Amino acid sequence: MLSCCEGEDPLIVPEVRQAPEPESAPQRVSEVQLGSREALSLGMETEVPNSLPGDDQDECLLLPGELCQHLCINTVGSYHCACFPGFSLQDDGRTCRPDNGPPAAAEESALRPEPSQVAPNTILLPRPQPNTCKDNGPCKQVCSIIGDTAMCSCFPGYAIMADGVSCEDRDECLLGAHDCSRRQFCVNTLGSFYCVNHTVLCAQGFILNVHRKCVDINECVTDLHTCSRGEHCVNTVGSFRCYKALTCQPGYTLEEGECADVDECELGTHNCQAGFTCQNTKGSFYCQARRCMEGFLQDPEGNCVDINECTSLSEPCRPGFSCINTVGSYTCQRNPLLCRRGYHASQDGTECVDVNECEAGMHHCREGQVCHNLPGSYRCDCKAGFQQDAFGRACVDVNECWTSPGRLCQHTCENTLGSYRCSCASGFQLAADGKHCKDVNECEAQRCSQECANIYGSYQCYCRQGYQLAEDGHTCTDIDECAQGAGILCAFRCINVPGSYQCACPEKGYTMMANGRSCKDLDECALGTHNCSEAETCHNIEGSFRCLLFECPPNYIRVSETKCERTTCHDFLECQSSPAHITYYQLNFQTGLLVPAHIFRISPMPAFAGDTIALTITRGNEEGYFGTRRLNAYTGVVYLQRSVREPRDFALDVEMKLWRQGSVTTFLAKMHVFFTTFAL
């Protein structure tokens, strides 16, 4: 790209180097030790777009001879096991069993010669045949006879495959068997490799892959980082970062500088026994037992044992029953019940209940007495309103009004034989209960001329709105609201009527509002009731209107209804002294406005940094009612500095000079300010 688009030097042709001849015989694939740059390179068959170098781990090379009994075949992200011909893979996915013969381990031991007779990078054929190396036998590259056994091997740069006869390319870049420097990139080829100087083609932190693409260098794996021993290296795109070394607690593992949970259930590192299920938790796991039938509980060994509901439940049976435990359940048995005198067993036999001697006629009360049942017994009492005499033999009348003064009757108590009677004071009548007194509603007799309010024990007359009660307490007379509060009730004029009042407005300039008290200004300009000429503009004010004439002076043209713009400028002094724009404004205010009060704000639009203005009232402020001041460099206000007490009109000319980038521009605001009385 640089050579084509920017005219740089031609691309450097990668230097092709042959793999160095091994000093000894080829090694068996399972015996190859991985180099320190294992994660740097990817084989051409596993390279995919946008993949980082070394994403897949070859478990068969990392754990040689530990994963599978015969053959280990690496896959992307995993691996799987295979067996020699004549053998079948067992259910565990690891060990092999002969199709017809002794166990797999015995046959493999019988077929394998002494270690001194086996050359590296060689896999034995399972069943040797005499003279099998004729015409190179079954081997794809090199066939050798060792004893009476034929063994296949490969040319330099190749490695024997899982079938024991075929050869595959030996990836020197993956195995670290190349002599490329750290500033070079190893590219594998069939039977060899070559080195590419990637520093010229890729940015720092990237290398050129076999597809001529710049991919990230994992400095942490290739030992190109500068982290100290006490720090942990984490790779980033085009660079790396150093973190302080972390020590994770048991049940966690370090991943990308953080402690991540270890799933013992998925990895199979738990110790759950048969009949238990492993359940992973953060930093640990637990063994969940199989479920037992209802009435049984599982012990720590996984056995289902009976639950004694009689001891484990707080109330397994109803009162009067005893609990008897059974296998997987329990039963309730009734208890025998013995009751003491004055009690007998209930119908269900669960408890002892009281005997009501009064209802059963088992009492010994005399005539004139009343039987009262008690728990386990009874008592003989006098009837209501009577009590026993001093000797305890006869029942005599009780004067309830004396014994309970103020408790029996709300007003007056009168004693009677065996009872009492209540009466009420004037204005009350006895209630239905015969004790309390309820108020009499005198208003039902229509004793008042207008309104009547019943009160406790009496009544009160009152009048409707607009009337007042006379001295007799029953008659109502009209109230003159206008005489009592004319300035409060109506904004302009109050007219008294029987029982009320009415408000009126001035004949001209106002109309009554919906509240019936305030007067609303009539907009003569909007209604068309003004007498302004066609050349004049009608401006409405409180209670009236004004006819205003907006004319542009010579050398100005009218650009809008209220704005004039200068047409030409003959010299520099005229440009600075005469206003560029003349704008008309109309302002309405009420008399008595508190001072000081800002009534008009002026500033250039738009405003720029460095703008400066100056405001001056050139006409109409002879009496000093108004003043000007600046709020900031480019904003000013016109304010009222003397209070206006009476209705009055003002015509002000306010001049604004703008200094911008070394030039001065003048603007003129012609303001009509109208002060009127408060709204009616």
UniProtKB/TrEMBL annotation:
Please name the SMART domains in this protein's record: EGF, EGF_CA
Asked if the Swiss-Prot or TrEMBL record annotates the protein with the keyword Repeat, the reply is yes
> Sorted alphabetically, which Pfam families does this protein's record hold?
cEGF, EGF_CA, Fibulin_C, FXa_inhibition
In terms of Gene3D superfamilies, this protein maps to: Laminin (2.10.25.10)
Locate the EGF-like domain: which residues? 56-97, 354-392, 397-438
Q: Which UniProt keywords apply?
A: Calcium, Disulfide bond, EGF-like domain, Extracellular matrix, Glycoprotein, Repeat, Secreted, Signal
Could you confirm whether the keyword Glycoprotein appears in this record? Answer: yes
Localized where? Secreted, Extracellular space, Extracellular matrix
Entries under CDD domains matching the protein: EGF_CA
Checking PANTHER family in the record gives: FIBRILLIN-1, PA14 DOMAIN-CONTAINING PROTEIN
What family classification does the UniProt entry report for this protein?
Belongs to the fibulin family.
What protein is this chain from?
A: EGF-like domain-containing protein
Question: Which species?
Answer: Pipistrellus nathusii
